[in-house]
Write a structure and sequence with these properties.
The complex is a heterodimer of chains A (about 110) and B (about 110).
Chain A (H helix, E strand, L loop, with lengths): L8 E5 L4 E6 L7 E8 L6 E6 L4 E2 L4 E4 L5 E6 L8 E9 L12 E6 L1
Parallel strand pairs in A: 1-9
Antiparallel strand pairs in A: 2-7, 3-4, 3-8, 5-6, 6-7, 8-9
Chain B lengths: L4 E3 L2 E4 L5 E6 L6 E7 L6 E7 L2 E4 L8 E4 L6 E5 L8 E8 L7 E2 L3 E5 L1
Parallel strand pairs in B: 2-11
Antiparallel strand pairs in B: 1-3, 3-8, 4-5, 4-9, 5-6, 7-8, 9-10, 9-11
The chains are: A mainly beta (about 110), B mainly beta (about 110).
């Protein structure tokens, strides 16, 4: 059911920016892109979401391409505590708010 | 603001036994979700409530799983009888409204022996 494609794992050096890509080539006009992360043994944590425009909050930035077929989550200064599985999710506005989680990207932040 | 609460955090049972999980959503959140997360996979939605009514339970194995949210606040998820393949983390989430951002609890880790 998942409609997104993410690399299974990525490495990032502590203090550097982490750029996590997501492909959602079949996204439709009324579907949002959400990002969550899951630190080991915890529930998923909301990070950010967007529809068309780029978004930024205190945790991250979300860059959505003009054709909306892909997006990138940017953690500007990764720390060891950012090591987690990151999920990119496409949510239809009118589909009962269903979230389809794929397998996500395991981000390993290394000292 | 208190987050989504779940209990117990861990449960070990033998196959064919029954088990129940409890969830208390964020105050004022009308929509409540139960997910199952098998090791190495992303969460999968089991059932979704809007207040005390079921919105979607298409992925709930109804022969053994049941859930209720009688007063539109707390919810319980029950498995009876449990199978080995039910070993997973059961996550509860809530959102302010049907189209709102979902916030997750810490989950209940179930091991069926």
């Amino acid at each position: 059911d998942a409609k997104t494609t993410q690399p299974p794992s990525m490495d990032c050096a502590e203090g550097r920016a982490a750029n996590l890509p997501c492909n959602h080539s079949t996204i439709s006009g009324n579907e949002y892109v959400y990002w969550y992360r899951q630190i080991h043994s915890q529930g998923p944590q909301y990070i950010i979401h967007g529809l068309k425009n780029n978004e930024t909050n205190e945790m991250a930035s979300l860059i959505i391409t003009e054709d909306r077929k892909s997006s990138t989550l940017i953690l500007p200064h990764a720390t060891l505590r950012d090591t987690a599985v990151y999920y990119c999710i496409v949510r239809a506005v009118y589909n009962f708010n269903k979230f389809y989680f794929g397998s996500g990207t395991k981000l390993n932040v290394k000292p | 603001e208190a987050g989504v609460a779940q209990s117990p955090r861990y449960k070990i049972i033998e196959k064919r036994q029954s088990v129940a999980f409890w969830c208390n959503p964020i105050s004022g959140h009308a929509t409540l979700y139960w997910y199952q997360q098998i090791l190495g996979q992303g969460p999968k939605l089991l059932i979704q409530f809007q207040n005390n009514g079921v919105v979607d339970d298409s992925q709930l194995p109804k022969d053994r799983f049941s859930a209720e949210r009688l007063k539109g606040v707390d919810s319980t998820l029950k498995i009876q009888p449990a199978k080995l393949e039910d070993s997973a983390v059961y996550l509860c989430a809530s959102s302010l409204e049907l189209a709102g951002t979902q916030y997750f609890g810490p989950g209940t880790r179930l091991l069926v022996l």
